[in-house]
Task: inverse folding
């Protein structure tokens, strides 16, 4: 017997045996045996996890909205925890951009936490997203279940963006879960004097990709999702250019990724597989990397990784 539904919309239950069970969740450590949700089950696909402090500063809220919005404008699903502060801002930015967003709760979907976000959760559902939990509808949220749900948030994202986190922090644990699931971790650094940014700064120190401005974020999006940067320009003088083919997009993505950081062959193969499904990734990569090396843009480092060629002058 469940409690009265508190959110309007299609209710669904998915087991790991269901075809509709999201493939991305199968790669999470301890995949949920069952997912309960309200909304559109098709929204449960890989995207960008965006999390941050509940007691967020204006800086944290602004960064959550800024970067979640930039990703959502490119059609990338935003996954977060529906909490106060940075999580709420990330969801709202996705809604404003017209992209789907998914809220993963620590308790059952009929036991909303925080209750004050009911309006936000309903808007997520109404605009094609979903509110989900691995717990039954009326399961009460507990401290331990929030740490457990973080593995779902992190696992549903191809990357996890930490916007603001102190030490200790539940947000910090989401980064641990992302690493355990083999996901990328990005972090927005803050002032070294800010208690709210100690966790995020520590993540950068430990190797997380620092998101220092819009261009850095766009580079990461391009490398991970193959999402083209959006340039602001005036009216074109001539006819609109022909849209890029998938291979041309992949070629641009490869060049941008290797200009940004050093990547192993395994990482490059994984990206190419996402960009060009059905194409043998390694032969294609070797041809394209050789062309970039010939142009003097890319080099191979002693550890075998490929990355930007740095001029000696």
Result:
């Amino acid at each position: 017997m469940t409690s009265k539904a508190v959110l309007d919309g299609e209710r669904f239950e998915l087991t790991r045996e269901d075809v509709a069970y999201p493939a991305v969740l199968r790669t999470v450590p301890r995949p949920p045996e069952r997912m309960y949700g309200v909304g559109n089950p098709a929204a449960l696909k890989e995207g960008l996890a965006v999390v941050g402090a509940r007691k967020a500063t204006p800086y944290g809220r602004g960064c959550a909205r800024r970067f979640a919005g930039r990703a959502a404008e490119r059609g990338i699903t935003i996954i977060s925890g529906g909490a106060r502060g940075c999580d709420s801002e990330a969801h709202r930015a996705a809604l404003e951009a017209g992209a789907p967003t998914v809220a993963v709760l620590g308790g059952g979907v009929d036991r909303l936490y925080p209750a004050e976000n009911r309006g936000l959760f309903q808007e997520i559902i109404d605009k094609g997203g979903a509110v989900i939990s691995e717990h039954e509808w009326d399961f009460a949220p507990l401290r331990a279940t929030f740490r457990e749900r973080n593995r779902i948030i992190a696992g549903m994202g191809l990357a996890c963006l930490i916007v603001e986190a102190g030490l200790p922090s539940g947000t910090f644990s989401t980064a641990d879960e992302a690493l355990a699931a083999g996901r990328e971790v990005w972090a927005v650094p803050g002032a070294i004097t800010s208690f709210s940014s100690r966790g995020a700064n520590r993540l950068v120190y430990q190797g997380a990709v620092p998101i220092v401005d819009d261009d850095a974020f766009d580079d990461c999006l391009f490398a991970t999702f193959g999402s083209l940067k959006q340039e602001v320009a005036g009216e074109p003088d001539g006819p609109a250019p022909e849209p890029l083919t998938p291979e041309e997009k992949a070629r641009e993505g490869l060049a941008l990724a290797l200009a940004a950081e050093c990547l192993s062959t395994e990482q490059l193969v994984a990206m190419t597989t996402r960009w060009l499904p059905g194409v043998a990734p390694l032969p294609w990569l070797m041809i394209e990397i050789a062309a970039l090396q010939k142009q003097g843009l890319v080099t191979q480092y002693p550890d075998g990784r490929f990355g930007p060629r740095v001029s000696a002058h």
Remarks:
- DSSP finds ten helices and eleven strands in the chain.
